[in-house]
Amino acid sequence: MFRFPSGRPAGIARILDFAETFLGGGTSYQTPLTAARELLAEEFDDTARMRGDIVMITDDECGVTEEWMHGWNDAKHQLGFRVFGVAIGAPRAAETGSVLEALCDNLRSIEDLTDVHAAADLFRVI
């Protein structure tokens, strides 16, 4: 898990460590988003801080349970966080009506990371 709290410089070594980490494959939206939600809930309980941002980057699609989605939406409303999604090389994951679209406030699909216009759009949004 990598945390980059606002107001604190991350440092180039930490950013490179994040960018070079491979988690072994497989796609799950519930596992990482649940962990992110729990971190935001902890921060809210400790400092009453709301309105965090989650960035979800994926190269595949998957499902979530209906029960989990209800809990997700309740937490999102209570904690006021936003979710930015980036589907890399997975246009179906970002289609209208997809699970990823339902999870994200702002969703982008990118096919070519060397496309400077697409990369500029990502950095402008996130």
TrEMBL record:
<dbReference type="InterPro" id="IPR036465">
    <property type="entry name" value="vWFA_dom_sf"/>
</dbReference>
<protein>
    <recommendedName>
        <fullName>VWFA domain-containing protein</fullName>
    </recommendedName>
</protein>
